[in-house]
């Protein structure tokens, strides 16, 4: 599994006469960070939702290594191939950080003992120690919660990470830290990171920037990486 592609993707909400996305051709490969930018209403979040298999194109195709998503089990795709990172973190409030990271693995049949060992490594990879793992989300800072959310996203084993404004609720220092973690995942561990952001400083550090306006890709550029 190396790439995600959109081929002539158009999307229109039901009972609407206007296309939110219009004939989108894009390709995302592992080993890179992609930033999707554009004004509110340009179609960024809809594009991310389609990549996640949460919405289906009105026309066109979404391909995972040349296999049309319309032909595969989307629940399995979302469990095993794609992981989401959200601006609001979406951690389970009554589970500890460790338990939040273990949860997807246990849902996929991994034993509690094995999941805990793997979770410790994942938390360490996002610069959180065992003591952080024992805390509930309310006892973690925003930056720490987002790093737990990244570790949880990684716990499924998916190599495509979709991030919706991952630094939107963070201060500059924590935003930079999260950006560095995402860069490391792409460049050193061969993940594909696709992030939607309004933060042009964060976007400028991506390998590739796609700019949307009125549902179309109006510009693409390579920046040389984070």
Note down, in words, how this protein is organized:
With 226 residues, this protein is of the alpha/beta class. 35% of the residues lie in helices and 27% in strands. It contains eight helices and ten strands. It has helices at residues 44-51, 74-80, 97-107, 112-125, 130-133, 142-154, 172-189, 200-203, and strands at residues 3-12, 19-29, 33-37, 59-64, 67-68, 82-86, 160-164, 192-196, 208-213, 216-222. Strands 6-7-8-3-9-10 form a six-stranded mixed beta sheet, sandwiched between helices. Strands 2-1-4-5 form a four-stranded antiparallel beta sheet, covered by helices on one side. A hairpin with a 2-residue loop joins β4 and β5 (67-68). α3 crosses α4 (112-125), α4 (112-125) packs across α6 (142-154) and α6 packs parallel to α7 (172-189). It is globular and about 50 Å long.
Itemize the secondary structure elements and their pairings.
Elements: E1 3-12, E2 19-29, E3 33-37, H1 44-51, E4 59-64, E5 67-68, H2 74-80, E6 82-86, H3 97-107, H4 112-125, H5 130-133, H6 142-154, E7 160-164, H7 172-189, E8 192-196, H8 200-203, E9 208-213, E10 216-222
Parallel strand pairs: 3-8, 3-9, 6-7, 7-8
Antiparallel strand pairs: 1-2, 1-4, 4-5, 9-10
Contiguous low-pLDDT stretches (5 residues minimum) are none
Radius of gyration of CA atoms, rounded to a whole number: 17 Å
How are the strands of the largest sheet arranged?
A: 6-7-8-3-9-10
Q: What integer is the average pLDDT?
A: 91
């Amino acid at each position: 599994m190396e790439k995600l592609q959109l081929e002539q993707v158009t999307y229109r909400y039901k009972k609407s006469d206007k296309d939110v996305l219009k004939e989108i051709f894009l390709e995302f490969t592992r080993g890179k960070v992609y930033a999707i930018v554009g004004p509110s209403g340009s179609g960024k979040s809809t594009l991310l939702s389609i990549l996640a298999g949460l919405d289906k194109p009105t026309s066109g195709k979404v391909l995972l290594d040349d296999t049309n998503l319309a032909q595969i089990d989307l629940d399995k795709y979302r469990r095993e191939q794609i992981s989401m990172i959200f601006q609001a973190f979406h951690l389970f409030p009554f589970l500890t950080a460790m338990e939040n990271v273990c949860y997807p693995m246990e849902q996929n049949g991994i034993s509690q003992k094995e999941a805990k060992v793997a979770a410790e490594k994942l938390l360490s990879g996002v610069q959180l120690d065992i003591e952080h793992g024992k805390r509930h989300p309310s006892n973690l800072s925003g930056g720490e919660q987002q790093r737990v959310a990244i570790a949880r996203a990684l716990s499924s084993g998916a190599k495509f990470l979709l991030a919706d404004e991952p630094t939107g609720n963070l201060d500059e220092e924590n935003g930079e830290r999260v950006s560095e973690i995402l860069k490391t995942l792409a460049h050193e561990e061969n993940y594909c990171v696709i992030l939607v952001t309004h933060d042009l400083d964060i976007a400028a550090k991506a390998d590739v920037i796609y700019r949307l306006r009125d549902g179309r890709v109006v510009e693409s550029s390579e920046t040389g990486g984070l």
